[in-house]
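Please predict the structure of the following assembly.
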Amino acid sequence: MTQEDKKIEVKGSNLVRRNFFLRMLGIGTACAGTWVGSGNLVARAQSAETAAAAAPKIPDYDWNKHKWAFGVDATRCIGCLRCVEACKAENGVTQDAHHFRTWVERYVYLEGDERAHVDSQSDAQNIAASGSEKEFRFDNRYKDAKVEKAFFVPKLCNHCTHPACVQVCPTGATYQTKDGVVLIDHSYCIGCQYCVQACPYGVREFNHVMGVTDKCTWCYHRITKGLQPACVEVCPVEARVFGDRNDPQSPISAFLRNNRVSVLKPETGNAPNVFYVGIDKEVC
Amino acid sequence: MIGTMAQAAPYVGYVYPNETDIPWSVLIVIYPYITGLVAGAFIVSSLFHVFGMAQYKPVARFALLTAVSFMFFVPMPLLLHLGNPQRAFNAVLTPHWTSAMAAFSYVAGFYISLLLLEIWFAFRADIVALSKTTQGPLGTVYRLMTLGSDDVSPRALALDHKFATVLAMIGIPAAGGLHGYVGFLFGSVKAREWWSSDLMPIIFLLSAIVSGIGLLIVLYVVYSRIRKVPVDQACMKGLARTMWAFLLVVLVIEGLELLEMFYKRLEGIDMVQRLIEGPIRYGMMIQWGGSLIVLALLTVLIVFRVEGKALVRGLVISGVGMMIAVLAMRWNVVIGGQELSKTMKGLLVYYPEILSHEGLVAVAIVFTCPFVVLWLITRFLSPWEPEPS
Amino acid sequence: MPKHIARLLLLVVVLATAALTAKHYFTDKSYYAYGHYRGDSVAEIASDVPRFRGNEYCKTCHAKQYDSWLESKHNQPVIGKHVKCEVCHGPVGQHPSTAQAPLSVDERIALGSKAPVAEGPTGGKLPLPKDRTKCIQCHEAMPGRPAAQRQVVLAAHAGTEQCTVCHDPHSPKINFASLAKAPQGNAAAGKVLAATCAACHGAAGASVNPAWPNLAGQHAGYLINALQAFKSGMRTNAMMSGMAAGLSDADIINVAAYFSQASCKTAGADRAIALLGKSKAASCALCHGANGVSPSPAWPSLAGQNPDYLSDTLKSFQDGTRNHPVMTSIAKTLSADDVAQLTAYYASTSCK
C-alpha cells in the first residue's frame, strides 16, 4: 500500500492525528526507501497514481481492457511445425536448432512401453530430415513401429500469473503487463540469464548477438493491433487458440468454457496462462 | 566479445530445445568459489578481532588483506559472463528486490566497504608511520589515506580498536549473508531440481569457510617461506581444529541432504541418480573423496598431536585438498544443476570452452588476479608483526 | 571526536550523496511509470512491425487464387481447418521486392496499426519449393497425427510423382470435371485405321488374347497418351512400338476416339478371388475409380480389363521394364497374391 492509497483510505475521516501519523509514516517510509539506496518506494507511490490513469502509448489499444490467454488443443496438432517457422520469421529468433520461442514435442508410446519416447523438432534426426536448422519437420521414424499412442504438444511461454522469471530479474528488464503478457525490455536486459534458469518450462533463450534473453511475447506487436499471434495465424488446424478472457465471445473464452483444461507443471506455483487439452502424464 | 553461442551441449533423453545452450558457464563456477574464499578468510580474522583468540593473531591482518584481495575480483566473473556488461549498473540503478541477484551489487558493495574500513582501522597506525617515512608518489598515497590526521595517541588507537571490533562483528553476519546469499541464489531456483533446496545457503556458507581456511593456511605457509620465518605452531593447530570442525558439519549436512533426497524418492530421482553417476561423476568423486581424505588427515593431525614440519606439511596438503574439493563442489552444483534437464527426462553435458571470454583461460586469469593483488597489497601494507630481532 | 573519524564520516557522506545523485540522474524517466520496469518499453515492443498479414492482404492482388481457395478443402472453418495463404507461402513481410524506408521506433509507435508493413509492389515472389516438401509437412502419414487429418503414405499414394500433377494446392480436391478433355477425334476415320489393330485387340476392341488389353470403352485421353508414349519411345513393346510409329498425331486421336466409343465387354473372373481383391483396391481407387472406371480421362479405366494383361502390367512395373512415377512404387508394394486378387476384381467389375 502506498502513501496515496493510505491518504485515500482515511479521506473523510476527521481523525487529523491519524492522518498526520500516516503521513509521517509515509514520509518515514520514503526516507527509508531513499536511504536503502533505491528510492523505489517514492517512485512506486508516484507510479501508482499515474498507472491507473495512463496506459502505454499504443495507438487504438488500452491494456486495461484486455486479459490475454492461450489455449493448446493437442488432439488437433498435426506436427507440421508451421508455427515454429512462422514464429522465427515473425520475431527474428536466432536461426538454429537451439533457440525457440515456441516448439512442438512428439510423444510416442510403443507397444509394451511404460514411458513415452519424446523428441522435438530440434532432435538431430529431425534436423537431418529437414536438411537445415532453418526449416523444421518431424521425420517419420515411427512409421513402421508398433505405435500404441502418439501425439504432438506445442509449447510456448506460459505468461504465468506468478512468473518466476520476473521474480528473479535483477533489473526489471522483464515484467508483466497489465493485460497479462510477460515481456522483455531488450534495451535494459543485462544478459545475466538468471531468468533462463528460473523458468521451469525452458521457454527462455539467449540471443547471443544482442546479448539479451528472448522469449515469446504472444506477439505483443500483433495482438495490440488486433491481429492473432503468428503461430495462431498459421496453425492450419486450430490447435492453437488465442484471445481475450474479458470477452466471453473470444475463442479462448469458448475454449476454456467447452474443455476440461490443464496447465503444465502446476506444482511450481507459477500459474500458467497457456491451457492444454489432450495431454497426458508424460508431458513435461 | 559478444557473439555466437558456444557449441551446443550434447544430451541424452529429451531436453527442451533451448536447454542445449547452457546459460551459466564455468565463470559462474568460480564466482561462488571466490566469494567463499573471502568469507572463509574473513571468519579467521574475526576469530581474533571479535572473539579475541590470540593464537590467530599472526594471520589476522593477513586474512583481512586476503579477503579484500579476493573480494575485488568477485564481480569479475559475473561481468565477463553478462551479455551486456556495460549495462551492469542497471541492477544498481533499479534493483528489483524480489531478485536475489539484485542484491548482489549492494551486498558486495557493502562488504567491500566494510572490509576496506576494517583494514583502515587495523592498519591506521602503520599508515601514519609510513606516510612520514615514504617519499614520492607512494608517500602521497599514504598521506591521502591518513585523511590528514596523524593522531596515533593511545586514546585514538583504542577508539580505532573499538571501531575495528564493531566492524568485525558486523562483518561476521555480513560474510555469512554474502555467502548465504550466493547459496540462496541457487537454492531458490525452483525450476532446477538439483539446486532447489532449503539447505543450499548453509551448505554454501560452511563449505566456503572450509575452503577459505584452506586458502589461508596455504598462503600463510607460502608467505612464511618467502619471508624465511618459522610458521606459528599454535596458529596452525588452531586452524587445523577450526577447519576440522567446519568440514565435519559440512559433510554431515551434505550427506543428510543426499540421504533425504534418495530416501524420499520424489519424482525425477532416477534422473538425479543418473546425473551423479554420469556427467558429474568425477566432480562428485573429487568433492567427496577429497573431503573425506582431508577429514581423515586432519583427524590424524589432531589426535596424534602432530607438530613441527609434519603438521605444516599435513595442513598444506589439507588446505590444497579442501580448495580442490570445494571447487569440485561448486562445479557439481552450478554445472550439475544445468546438466539435469528441466524435463527430468534427459541429461546434458557441459564442455567448457578454452579461449573465449567465458573459457578456461579467462577463468585462470580471473583466479590469478587476487593472488597478484594480494602480493602487491602486502608490499604496500605489511600485515606481519615486526620481527623480533 | 578524533579528526580522522570525523573526516572518515564526511567522506562516507560525500560518497553516498554522490552515489544517490548519480542513481537519480541515470534512472530512466519512464521507469516505475506502470511498475518496476521502463514504462516506455511496452509501447516500443508493441510497435514492432508484423510480418504475417493474413488472407485479406493477399487477396487484394491474388483474387483468383483466393477465390478458388475460399471454397476449397483447405478452407473449412466449420471443422476448424484453414490453411491460409501464409501457411504455405510464408509471411508477406518477406515479399522480396520490399523497398520501404525504415521507420524509427517513435514513428512506429505514432502510426500504430497504420504503420506500413514490410511489403512491396508486385513482382516479388514468395519462395515456395517446387518439390513435395510443403504438402507432406501436413499430409505425410505419421504416428501422432490425428485421424481426422488427411494423410497419405507417400510411396503408395503418389510414388515419386509431384503432388501438383493431380492437385491444385489452392483447392486440393481433384475436380475431374474441370480437367482438360481429350481432343475430339473422328471415330469413323478411326474405324478404318483400327483394322490394323483388330488382329490383336479385336475388331470392336475386345482383345482376342487375355494377355492383351481390351481397348473398347477405354478413355480416349489415356489411349492417346499410350500411343504417343510408344511412338516417342517412352514406352516400348515389340509389337506396339512399330505400330505406333506409323501413326500420325491425327491418326492417334481418331483411332483413340473409335475405341473409346466402342462397346466394351467385361472379362470376368472368379468371384471369391475378386472379393478378396476388392478389399485391397482402396488405394487403386484414388486414381482408377471405385469400380475401376477412372474419373480422369488421362488415367486408364481398369473395369472389365483382361486379368492376365493387368497382372503382366503390374509385373512389368515391379521388375522395371515399365516405369511410371506413381505405378512403379505402388506395384512394388503388391505381393503375387495381391496382384492375382486385384486383377480378378477389376476383371469382374462392369466396364459400362
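Residues 154-187 of chain B form the longest helix (34 residues). The two ends of chain B are 54 Å apart (CA to CA).
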